[in-house]
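User: Need the bound-state model for magnesium ion:
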Amino acid sequence: MTQFTLIDILRNLIFATQWTVILSLVSFAGGGLLGLVLLFMRIGKARLLPPVVKLYVEIFQGTPLLMQLFLAFFGLGLFGIDVPPWLAAAVALILWTAAFLAEIWRGCVEAVAKGQWEASASLGMSYLEQMRHVILPQALKVAIPPTVGFSVQVVKGTALTSIIGFTELSKAGTVLTNATFQPFTVYGLVALIYFALCFPLSQAARHLERKMNAAHRH
Amino acid sequence: MPLIAIDGLRKSYGEHEVLKGIDIGVEKGEVIAIIGKSGSGKSTLLRCINGLETINGGSIAVDGAELAADEAHLRALRLKVGMIFQQFNLFPHKTAGQNVMLAQQVVNKTGKAEAEAMARKMLDRVGLGEKFDSYPDQLSGGQQQRVAIARALAMEPMALLCDEITSALDPELVGEVLQVVRGLAAEGMTLLMVTHEMAFARDVCSRVVFMHQGRVHETGRPEEVFANPQTPELQSFLGRSAA
Ligand SMILES: Nc1ncnc2c1ncn2[C@@H]1O[C@H](COP(=O)(O)OP(=O)(O)OP(=O)(O)O)[C@@H](O)[C@H]1O
Ligand SMILES: [Mg+2]
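Assistant: Bound-state model below.
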C-alpha cells in the first residue's frame, strides 16, 4: 500500500476541486438561464404557464436534491438510457438551481412598487416596455445579493453528486479516506476547501446587501 | 361632443359595486374638481378613465374614441390622457430628465436629442430646469411631483387626471405644486382632479363634482356648490372638511 503524505492528499483534493468548481459554474449558469425562462413564464401574461412553473418550483423545492439526483441518474436508466454521473449531476443541479433562482427573482420583480407599473402604464408603455425599462432594472438591483448568496447553496449542493459517483471534491475525500484511513485529516481538508470556495461568495453577498441598503438609489 | 364622455360607468370589485352609473362630460379646457368622502369612488373613477381598471358597464370615450381593453386601444387612450399620482411614482433608477424622456423615446420612438429638448422644456415649465440630472431621492416631495407633471406633459396629452396629487406632501410644499397646476389650467389644459384643497377648487376649477357612494351626487359651478350645497350629504361633507 502506497503511503500518502499530506501534500499528496492535498494535491488530489485540489485536483478534484476543479470538478466541484466546474459543476458549480455549469449549474449556476445553466440554472440561471433556465431560471430566467421560468421567471418570464411565471410573471408573463399567458394564463397557462404560471401554474406550470409554480408546480415545477414546488416539486424541486419540496423534494430533497438527493432524490432529484437519484431520479436523474437511475430514472433515465430505467428507459435504457445510460446516463453518466456527470450528466445526471449537471442536469439535476441545473433544474434544481433554476427552480430556486426563478423563485428568488420572482420575489424581486414583485417587490417593485405597484405604482411603478401604474405610472409606466399611464405613459402608454406596453407590458414588455414596462418590464424592460422600468421593472426589471429595479428588480435586478434587488436580486443581486440573494442571487450571489444562493450560489453558496449551489457549491454545497454539488457535494451530493458524490453519491451517484461523480468524482468531485467530496467523492475524492471518500476515496482518499478509504486509501489513507485518515478521515479526520482528509475531511477536515475537504471542509476547508469548501469553506474557501463559499466564504468569499457569502461575504460578497453580504457586502452587496449592505451597499444596497446604505444607498438604495440608482 | 365632450372631450371625455363618461356614460353609465359601472365598476365592481367582486360583489362590491364601487361606481354605480357615472355620467360626466368633460369639455376641452374644463378644470373639474372631484370631491367626496373617502371610499366614495373618486380614485376608481380616474383609474377607469386611464384604463388602469377594467370597467363592468357603461362607456368611456376620449376625443371620440371609446375605451376598449386590448393593449392597442389602451395605449392610444393613455397617450391622450396623462395621469399624476398621489405617490409621484417617479422611476427611482432614472434622473428627473430621464424620467421625462423615457416614454417619449420608448412609446413615441422620439429621438434622444428631441426627447431631451422636450424634457428640458417641460422641466423648465414646472420650474425644475436645473434638476435635470438629479435622481428622485435627491428631490423634495414637491419637486418630485412637479417632475411627474413634466413627465406626463411631455407626452402632450389632451387631458390630465390628478389623484390627490398634493396629499402626500408636507404642507409647505403643497403650494408649489398647486402653482404649476394653476398655470396649466390658465393655459387651457383639460384637468380632472380629485382634491381635498377646497380653496384651490373654488379658485381654479370651472366645475365641482361631488361623489357619494359611487354616484355623482351633486355637481355645479364652485361658487354655487360651495356657497349653496343642495343635498344634506354635500352640506355635511363641506361642513366637516371646513372644520
Ligand atoms: N383594488 C381594489 N380591490 C377591492 N376594493 C377596492 C379596490 N380599490 C378600491 N376598492 C374599494 O373601492 C371603494 C372606492 O375606493 P376609491 O379608492 O375609489 O375611493 P376614494 O374616493 O378615492 O377614497 P379616498 O379619498 O380614500 O382616496 C372603497 O370602498 C375601496 O375599498
Ligand atoms: Mg382615492
